[in-house]
Amino acid sequence: MPRDGGRRTTVVAVAGATAVVIVAGVTVAKVATASRVLTTVKARANAELDAARAQSV
């Protein structure tokens, strides 16, 4: 077994873990952005509904 065999495995494992963290971070960012957009859309829809109700009264 080569002396650096363990070191290479560690480097590959760290690189793989870093990739997983980056992908997870991007996914979380996308979900957070989608959630914010959805909240904004809901707020606008509710405001429009309130305005329509106020006009009909």
Notes on the structure:
- The chain is mainly α.
- The chain is built from one helix and no strands.
- It has one helix at 5-56.
- It is rod-shaped and about 75 Å long.
- The termini are far apart.
- The mean pLDDT is 84.
Q: Secondary-structure element order, as H and E?
A: H
Uncertain segments of ≥5 residues (pLDDT<50)? none
**What is the β-strand count?**
0
Q: What kind of oligomer do you see?
A: single chain
Q: What is the overall silhouette?
A: rod-shaped
Describe the structure concisely.
The chain has 57 residues and is mainly alpha-helical. It has one helix spanning 5-56.
Question: Which characteristics define this entry?
Answer:
mainly alpha, about 55 residues, about 90% helix, about 0% strand, rod-shaped
Secondary-structure topology with pairs:
Blueprint: H1 5-56
